[in-house]
Amino acid sequence: MLNLYITSSKSKDGKTFLTAGIAATMQSLGYSTCVYKPIQTAGIELNGFMQSPDLTYVKSIDPYIDTHFSYLFKSKSEPLIASELENEPIDIELINSEYARISSMFDCTLLDGDCGILSPISAGFQTADLIKKLQIPLLFVVTPREDSINDTLLSIYTAQEKGLDIRGVVINNITEDCPKSLLTAIPRVIEEYTNVKILGLIPHLEGKFTPEDLITSVLNGVDVESIFKVKIEKLDLG
Q: Which residues pair with 37 in a beta bridge?
């Protein structure tokens, strides 16, 4: 099974954007793919029904990608606070069983994290503990900003202390005006201080872009084989 938990230390690092891109790419390569979001906060009410904005975005990229969630909260707070505000405790065992069921049905299952790995989910239980319980490898998404290094190093150090399987880091949303010195420094410092590899560089996609544009960006900019630790025949032939 090609499974992956995708997370970031900041809410606007493009985590769901990359999740959708990798999911669409794997689907295009012939792998049945599902995006599972265990916990969605900031849910949107539309026509009397609550919707997951992140999974809706994934569907907008490729409607054939299966999507699932276990908890959907209207509050924009972090999961533990949202669950308390809406009086719906988060059952870790439910997420565990849902993940086992879903991942058994697909070649590739991507978990789109709702927050950073230190965010509490239930009493005495953080996102990092959930990742460890699910025994799923971890991919960090980083946007090149001046404050990216500190936040990313803290997250990676925590993941390493927890004994998580870190596959690597993808630098996302690289704009044309991004200083070259910054774009050089962030990958160098991350690799030097953590021994975690940079596995991708994704440029900013201007305006309206097609799913094919996003897939092309992933294929050209991300080491998909290293992320999943698998040889993909179609990539080798291409």
A: 69
CATH number of the domain where residue 69 is located: 3.40.50.300
Q: Would you state the structure tokens that stand for residue 121, as one six-digit string?
A: 């989910």
Count of the separate structural domains present in the chain: 1
| pLDDT exceeds cutoff 60 at 178 | yes
Cross-strand bridge partners of residue 140: 7, 169
Q: Which of 114, 106, 110, 118 is nearest to 134 (CA)?
A: 110
Q: Which residue range forms the structural domain that includes residue 109?
A: 2-237
Task: Report the alpha-carbon distance of residue 238 to residue 17 in Å, rounded.
Answer: 24
Q: Beta strands 49-51 and 44-46: pairing type?
A: antiparallel
User: Under 8 Å CB-to-CB from 118, ≥6 apart: which residues?
Assistant: 126, 127, 128, 155, 158
Per-residue pLDDT reduced to its tens digit, 92-106: 999 999 999 999 999
Contact 139, 168 (CB under 8 A): yes
Interatomic CA distance for residues 132 and 217, integer angstroms: 30
| Prediction pTM value | 0.95
Signed CA dihedral, 129, 173, 25, 60: sign only: positive
DSSP 222: B
Instruction: Note the residue count of the chain.
Output: 238
pLDDT in tens, 57-79: 999 999 999 999 999 999 999 99
Q: Mapping DSSP to helix (H, G, I), strand (E, B) and coil, where does residue 182 land? A: helix
C-alpha span between 83 and 27 (Å, rounded): 33
- In the prediction, which pLDDT does 238 show? 54
Cα separation, 2 vs 203, in Å, equals 25
CA 81 to chain centre: 21
